[in-house]
Design brief:
7-stranded mixed β-sheet, 5-stranded mixed β-sheet, binds adenosine-5'-triphosphate, ligase, alpha+beta, Glycine--tRNA ligase, bis(5'-nucleosyl)-tetraphosphatase (asymmetrical) activity, Rossmann fold, BirA Bifunctional Protein, domain 2, cytoplasm
Length: 456
């Protein structure tokens, strides 16, 4: 769809999903703020993720580690050494791009071609770019109150390390046995060189991850790597992401991260240049635990309770971006539906579990107190159970359009008849069908409808 990204960015701002960070001060590159609808969507994604991967599983526990960590963590993890991207600089305009982003490089060269052609002795394509150089992506901060005695620390570049450094704590404080996972959701920070494509590449973003510890064995490694690939893709599918927009891509050995024994990306077919990384599944083997053990001198091993064999477990990581998930759920759910009389409606067909508001309540008219009172009573009752929106502006048609654009599955209208028959009109977002439901049945009706797993 043409200009789909422009439409998504504009809808996100207009309907309170996502705003540019610190906008009134001209913004801050690579930062975004979530509005009233956005925070609900993002929280729902995180809640569903936690429910599936922690609450419903006996083999995964959660933690929430600090963002600031002892800088030795980042030496041990290799981030201070290898968490760098090779950059090249354009000799014409001095813009810096990632050397491994071939599409952006080609696009940039195309943009400058007329200019290059005009410069007879100027840069030719082969020396158009500087040699690739490495830049560290870790964001620095300083801790302490006395000038000159401040300690340089880093805002974590990934949430992963908070899990590995707590491996022993979790083992000692729970009854969990290998194979087991530790899950975490939280913010990470990277000095991304080219933030962009809306929230896709930000400098402050949120991740959800599971580090799954297994026996150090090639066969086990393969088995759990495939297992987590399936779990991850099935989770997105269960929440309505279209199958044709997802695919796996194996990393080639030269693009694997410094720690990875095997790596694969779940990719999404985005409107900004096609397939893009959504989530990574990495076989990290014993890289992290061994390194932390070496740098901290703590023993980070596991003793099999049956065989009494001691070993350093291997780790299969699944690591996703909450902001990327939010963006891709938005894009995937966006639809322009042709109606009668050349009319079009924009509707976000978000899975009901993810929809920011489950139901909206409208009094038919805003200037009739008896309608407002009856509607308010229903609204107050529903909001105990569901995230509920209230709207009494404009006409009903406009209110439906507004709720369609935030993906609210049901709208409830209280009209004059309601005062007589104690029933309301419930309108379905996807089919636009309207049904008359008794007020006494309304809560149960909505609960049942919302529990249906897929609305498509
Ligand atoms: P990319 O190749 O896109 O830079 P990556 O391979 O560096 O990503 P990981 O380090 O594997 O990413 O991070 C795991 C997940 O965190 C990614 O799959 C993505 O969903 C999310 N993520 C990483 N960097 C960013 C970012 N700058 N902004 C938003 N989300 C991000």
């Amino acid at each position: 769809m043409e200009n789909l990204m422009e439409k998504i960015v504009s809808l996100a701002k207009r309907r309170g999903f996502i705003y540019p960070g610190s906008e009134i001060y001209g913004g801050l590159g690579g930062t975004w703020d979530y509005g009233p609808a956005g925070v609900e969507l993002k929280n729902n994604i995180k809640r569903e993720w936690w429910r599936t991967f922690v609450q419903l599983r006996d083999d995964v526990v959660g933690i929430d580690a600090a963002i600031l960590m002892n800088p030795k963590v980042w030496e041990a993890s290799g981030h201070l050494e290898s968490f760098t991207d090779p950059l090249v600089e354009c000799k014409v305009c001095h813009e810096r791009l990632r050397a491994d982003h071939e599409d952006e490089i080609k696009e940039h060269e195309k943009r400058h071609q007329p200019r290059i052609d005009r410069i007879e002795t100027g840069p030719k394509e082969k020396d158009f770019w500087t040699e690739p150089q490495k830049f560290n992506l870790m964001v620095e901060a300083s801790l302490g109150v006395i000038e000159g005695k401040k300690q340089t620390v880093y805002l974590r570049g990934e949430i992963t390390q908070g899990v590995h450094v707590n491996f022993k704590n979790v083992l000692d404080s729970t009854r969990i046995k290998i194979p087991f996972g530790i899950a975490q959701v939280g913010k990470a920070f990277r000095n991304e060189i080219t933030p962009g494509n809306f929230t896709f590449r930000s400098r402050e973003f949120e991740q959800f991850e599971i580090q799954y510890y297994i026996k150090p064995d090639e066969k086990e490694g393969k088995k759990w790597f495939e297992y987590w690939k399936n779990e991850v893709i099935n989770w997105y599918l269960s929440l309505g992401i279209k199958k044709e927009n997802l695919r796996f891509r194996d990393h080639t050995p030269d693009e694997r991260a410094h720690y990875a024994k095997d790596a694969c990306d779940l990719e999404y077919n985005s409107p900004f240049g096609g397939w893009k990384e959504f989530q990574g599944i990495h076989h990290r083997a014993d890289w992290d635990l061994s390194r932390h053990s070496k740098f901290s001198s703590e023993k980070l091993t596991y003793t099999d309770p049956e065989t009494k064999k001691e070993f350093t477990p291997w780790d299969i990581e699944s690591s996703g971006g909450v902001d990327r998930a939010t963006l891709f759920f938005l894009i995937d759910a966006y639809e322009e539906e042709k109606l009668e009389k050349d009319e079009t409606r924009v509707v976000l067909r978000l899975h009901p579990k993810l929809a920011p508001y489950k139901v909206a309540v409208f009094p038919l008219l805003a200037n009739k107190q008896e309608l407002i009172n009856a509607a308010k009573k229903i609204y107050d009752d529903l909001k105990i159970e569901f995230m509920t929106a209230w709207d009494d502006r404009g006409n009903i048609g406009k209110r439906y359009r507004a709720q369609d654009e935030v993906g609210t599955p049901y709208c409830v209208t209280i009209d004059f008849e309601s005062l007589e028959d104690n029933a309301v009109t419930v309108r379905d977002r996807d089919s636009m069908k309207q049904e008359r439901i008794a007020i006494s049945e309304l809560k149960n009706y909505l609960k049942n409808e919302l529990q249906k797993t897929n609305t498509r």
